[in-house]
C-alpha cells in the first residue's frame, strides 16, 4: 500500500471505525494509485459504477476522499458481478493475476440491484411484452427485430493512451504505442480508422466519448493506458461503442518489451474480432506479422516517431538520429528503416536538405525496409514518391501507391501523397477523390486541408482553394505551407496585395528557397521589381553556400518576365534531376511558359510528355 494511505480518526472518534474503514485516501491521485489505475478511469468508475468516493465541501471548494476497506469491498463485488463475462475471464487469463485491477467492463450492477418481482408479476410482464413485440413485428414486417440487432462497427478512433509511469519523459512511449496501434488497425480495409494526427487532438481532453465520436464521425473508440519500465510493458485497452456507451471488449496485456511489436498486433487482432470486422486472409497474416525487437531499438524507434510527428526541421533531424540508432541496434528492424525513409523524403520535400541526396537516402532506406518486410505500406508510399520524383518512373510510382493502399488502406498519408501525384499528372478529379479519402481518415489535420486546397488550386478553382487554406490556418496559424499556397491562390485571382501578405508570412515562418521564390514571383507580377530582384540576389548568394533548387530560380525569372532565363534554369533543373521539376505542369507560376515549344521538352524530361 502507498505510504500516503495512512489511518486517520473517523469523525466519531470510534477506534473500531478505523479498523472497519481501513486507511483514508485524500485525493483522486491517492485513490487511483491504490486501485492501480489512472485518475481518468477512477473518476469514470465513480460516475458510472458507484465507486465509493466521498466529498468534503469547504470554503475554498471541495475535496474527495475514500477508504481502502470500502474500495476493496467495491472491487470484490465488481469482480463477482462480472466473473461470468467472457471479457473478464480473458483479462484474468491474460494477466495471470486474479487480484490485479480488471479493465473497465459493461456494468451489471444495475441488473443485480433490482428488487425481485413476484413470479406471477414477471410472467404477466413477459406475456405482455411478447404480445407487443409480436404486434410490432407483424405490423412492420420485421423492422423491429432488425432494430434490435447491434449496430455494426465500421469506424473507430484510437484515443491517446494514457501514460501511467508518472514520468513525463515517457510520454513518447504512450504516444508511440497509440500511433502503432492505429497503424495496425489501418491495415483492415473494412474498417475506417482515424489517423493518429486527428486523434491526438483529444489528449488530456475533458470531452465525453460521445462528443469525440461525433466530431470524428466514428462508431467506437479505443481507450486505454500504458505502464512501462525499461524491460516490461503493460497495456490496458477497452473498446466502447459510443452510441450506447457499451463496452464491447476490454483486456490487459503484459509482456517483455522485446514482444511489444507482437503485443500491438495482438491488441489489433482482438479488436477486429470484438467488432466482427471483415478481415481477409492476407490482412490477418499482416496483423500476425509482429516479431521480437531489441528493447533499446524499440524505444529509439518510438522516440524517433515522437520527433517525426513534430514535423519541423529540428524535429525531423532529431527523428533521423533516433531511427539510425534503432537500426544500428537492431539491423533487422524493418519499421525503423521505413520511418527513416519517410524522414529523409520529408527533409527533401521541405528543402531542409539537398533534395536529390535526401531522396536517394529515402530510396535506400525504403528498399531496405521492404527487403525485410514487403508488406509495409509506409515504405511503399515513400518508394512511390521516389519513383516519380527522382527516377521519373510514373507508372512504377502508381504501382507502388496502389500497393501501399492495398496493404494499408487506412493510411491517410498514402492517400494524400497519391493525390499530389495525380494532381501533377493532370488527373484532377482522381486527385480530389483521393484527398477526400485522406480527409475522412484524418479530419482534424491542417495538412490534409492544405492538401485539398492544393488540389483545387491546381484546378484553378481559386475561391474554393482559399477556403480550404483558411480552414487549415484556423487549425494551425503557423503552418507555413498553408500561408504559401494561400498566397499563390490570391495571386491566381489577381489579388496581389493579399498574396504578398500571405507569402511574407510563409517566408517569415520558413525562409526556404521555395517560399522566397514564390514571394519574389508575386512581387514581380505586382510590379515591385526592386523587391523581387533583391530576393533573387539573396537566392544567388545562398546557392554559393547551400543548395538552391534550380526550379525555384526559374520561378523568380518567370515572374520577372525573363522567359529565356527561366528556361535556362528549368533545363538545369532537368539535368540535375531536380525533384521539384515534376510540379511544372501544375504550378500556376509557369502558366505563361506552356505555349513555348521548349516546355514540351521539359515535360518529356520528367516523363509527362503525351
Distance between the termini: 76 Å
The CATH class of the domain at 155-292: Alpha Beta
- Total number of helices: 30
Q: In angstroms, what is the radius of gyration?
A: 29 Å
Layout: helices, strands, pairs:
Blueprint: H1 15-21, E1 24-25, H2 28-35, H3 39-48, E2 54-58, E3 61-67, H4 68-82, H5 86-95, H6 109-113, H7 119-140, H8 143-148, E4 155-158, E5 162-163, H9 171-185, E6 192-193, H10 196-199, H11 209-216, E7 220-228, E8 232-241, E9 246-256, H12 260-274, H13 281-287, H14 295-308, H15 313-329, H16 334-349, H17 355-372, H18 377-389, H19 394-407, H20 412-424, H21 428-441, H22 446-458, H23 462-475, H24 480-493, H25 496-509, H26 513-526, H27 529-543, H28 550-559, H29 563-575, H30 597-605
Parallel strand pairs: 4-6, 4-7, 5-7
Antiparallel strand pairs: 1-3, 2-3, 7-8, 8-9
In short:
The chain contains 30 helices and nine strands. The protein has 610 residues and is of the alpha/beta class. The longest helix is centred in the first third of the chain and has 22 residues, at 119-140.
